[in-house]
Inverse folding.
């Protein structure tokens, strides 16, 4: 049976999980009842995985010896990337798990570590807290500052009624700083009283992350 | 989630298929991003913002190279030297897919790579490229269709498709 109301675009959006709940249910229902559509979905997925595979390891540029100016530009760019927060989970995993030593061998010991929390996702908060504490423990006696900066939807983590309140306290006990974004507070009409009493407020979360990065902190995101 | 710079690089490479150029574009985008970080109002749209800067860098570069071409429609062939690894069957597949991507019109190529390689939402892709979400959807749908057709065709030897050959050849 064919599904006359199902467009190619909708089928693609279904595969990419870009449909709203109602549309998703409708499309899923149509797919379940139509073998041709099932084949089409499989084809889209196959094309997608072929594409991903083809660019998994793009060739690396052959660089000529960098001039000092080019090198400093590179550093500048790297700092932006890190501070912007699209550098990602793998760093965190390295720091958290066995890769910890590997990660620290290739880079100098950071002055500190700044961890970004920008999602309203308690599972991610747990990871952020666990990692913050692990970093503190791993560096042991070394005086390394570890701070969690929560902004946007992530600010929920630091509220009084946060499901990870116990974790916040434990982390703070271990010397982890908990910082809330003042801009987010203003925009969401959150007052200091709405937040856990252990929390400090910074004017802007993203600026704090940028600033710390420029001071030589490592940036992590769960 | 992919690591930041390599994620940008992967997408830039999938647009131009030139490792040196992709690296330059990413570098340029990051520096421009740093200089205009104050313009970023909402940290939630960081990804789209950074990819839109990359897109601008790529377009600027393209206009310098091809002042009269329509970038949305342009098809470009990989100009980097054949990868020695392509002798392996595995890499032949990789090469075929990359050539198929390079044969897509730029408008479609950018959409499919942002969605599938950078794994961005349609709305983010729309924002990064400055086009409506509906256009993202139609281009993506056409891009995947063409890719599938291109990949079903008989493989074309790389050298035939490579306009630039080493000097002395």
């Amino acid at each position: 049976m064919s599904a006359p109301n199902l467009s190619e675009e909708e089928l693609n959006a279904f595969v990419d999980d870009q449909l709203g709940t109602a549309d998703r249910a409708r499309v899923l229902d149509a797919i379940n009842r139509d073998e041709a559509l099932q084949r089409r979905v499989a084809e889209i997925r196959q094309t997608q995985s072929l594409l991903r595979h083809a660019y998994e390891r793009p060739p690396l540029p052959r660089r000529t010896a960098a001039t000092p100016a080019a090198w400093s530009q590179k550093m500048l760019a790297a700092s932006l990337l890190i501070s912007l927060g699209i550098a990602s989970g793998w760093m965190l995993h390295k720091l958290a798990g066995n890769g910890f030593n590997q990660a620290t061998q290739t880079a100098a010991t950071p002055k500190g570590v700044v961890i970004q929390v920008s999602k309203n996702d308690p599972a991610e908060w747990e990871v952020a807290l666990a990692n913050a504490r692990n970093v503190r423990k791993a560096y042991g006696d070394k005086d390394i500052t570890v701070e969690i900066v929560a902004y946007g939807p992530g600010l929920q983590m630091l509220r009084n009624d946060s499901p990870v309140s116990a974790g916040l306290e434990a982390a703070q006990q271990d010397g982890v700083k908990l910082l809330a974004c003042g801009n987010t507070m203003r925009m969401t009409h959150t007052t200091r009283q709405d937040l856990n009493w252990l929390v400090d407020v910074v004017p802007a979360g993203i600026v704090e992350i940028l600033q710390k990065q420029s001071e030589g902190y490592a940036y992590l995101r769960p | 989630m992919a690591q930041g710079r390599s994620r940008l690089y992967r997408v830039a490479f999938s647009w131009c298929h030139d490792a040196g150029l992709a690296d330059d574009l990413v570098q340029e985008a990051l520096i421009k991003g740093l200089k205009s970080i104050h313009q970023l109002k909402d940290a939630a749209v960081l990804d789209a913002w950074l990819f839109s800067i990359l897109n601008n860098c790529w377009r600027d570069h393209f206009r310098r190279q091809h002042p009269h071409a329509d970038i949305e429609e342009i098809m470009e062939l990989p100009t980097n030297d054949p990868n020695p690894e392509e002798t392996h069957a595995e890499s032949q597949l990789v090469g075929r897919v990359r050539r198929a991507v390079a044969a897509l019109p730029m408008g479609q190529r950018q959409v499919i790579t942002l969605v599938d390689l950078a794994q961005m939402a349609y709305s983010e892709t729309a924002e990064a490229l400055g086009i409506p979400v509906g256009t993202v959807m139609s281009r993506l749908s056409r891009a995947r269709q063409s890719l599938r057709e291109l990949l079903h065709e008989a493989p074309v030897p790389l050298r035939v498709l490579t306009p630039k050959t080493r000097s002395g050849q």
In short: Chain A has two domains: 8-54, 73-220. The two ends of chain A are 45 Å apart (CA to CA). Residues 8-54 of chain A form one domain. The longest strand of chain A covers residues 112-117.
